[in-house]
Design brief:
The protein is of the alpha/beta class. The chain is about 50% helix and about 15% strand. α4 packs across α6. The longest helix has 15 residues.
């Protein structure tokens, strides 16, 4: 019987190695990556059955990485494994199509169970937030989302890189676009959000969950 193919994404190398020890006896661990852009690239190349990803990652956060993957033909199951116990993060994760949400402190106990559950077409939520998550969804109107962001995917990428402290030339190199294109996107972002300074952009990115720290 073929083992479930799993791709891991987390920017903490020691934690990645710990996960490897947990998962390798039972699953086919096809790869590990340490940032969101690498996650998108390797997921498209390796075609795993399940991605286990952190939300907080450099260059592209896990949420926006999954948004990009959703545009491809290969719809992979995603479990977010994160340090964030807040229900707001879980809400956002399921809005982008995640099948599971596990807190890192519970990984050794819950991750294997979560993978089996999502492979059966079920949803897994770490028990400590499951009740509160259900109550949050009950309060939403039909079609309402917890987060509303009007920025394009490219604008979100650039905004995250700005928040991480990258200068315009570095952002252009990372995204393989021109400096002028980066500057135009930044101008359009500030116009759209009615913000005037980079500091205001950073505050917005953190508050809206574009960058998770």
């Amino acid at each position: 019987m073929r083992k479930t193919r799993v791709l891991l994404a987390d920017d903490h190398r020691i934690f990645l190695e710990g996960l490897r020890g947990i998962l390798e006896p039972e699953f086919d661990l096809v790869g590990t990556v340490e940032d969101g852009r690498a996650l998108v690239k390797e997921a498209e190349r390796l075609r795993p059955d399940v991605i286990v990803a952190d939300i907080s990652m450099p260059l592209l956060n896990g949420i926006d990485a999954v948004r990009q993957l959703n545009k491809s033909d290969h719809r992979v199951k995603v479990i977010f494994l994160t340090m964030h116990p807040e229900v707001s993060f879980a809400n956002l994760s399921f809005e982008v199509g995640a099948s599971g949400y596990v807190i890192k402190s519970s990984a050794s106990r819950e991750l294997i169970t979560a993978i089996h559950k999502v492979m059966m077409g079920k949803t897994y939520v770490t028990p400590e937030i499951a009740g509160e998550l259900i109550q949050t969804y009950k309060k939403l109107k039909p079609g309402q989302k917890v987060f509303n962001q009007n920025l394009t995917d490219r604008q979100k990428e650039i905004l995250q890189l700005i928040t991480e402290g990258h200068v315009t030339k570095e952002i252009a190199d990372i995204l393989c676009i021109s400096v002028r294109t980066v500057e135009r996107h930044k101008y359009n972002i500030m116009q759209e959000l009615k913000l005037k300074t980079t500091a205001e952009l950073v505050k917005y990115a953190i508050k809206q969950g574009i960058t998770f720290i």
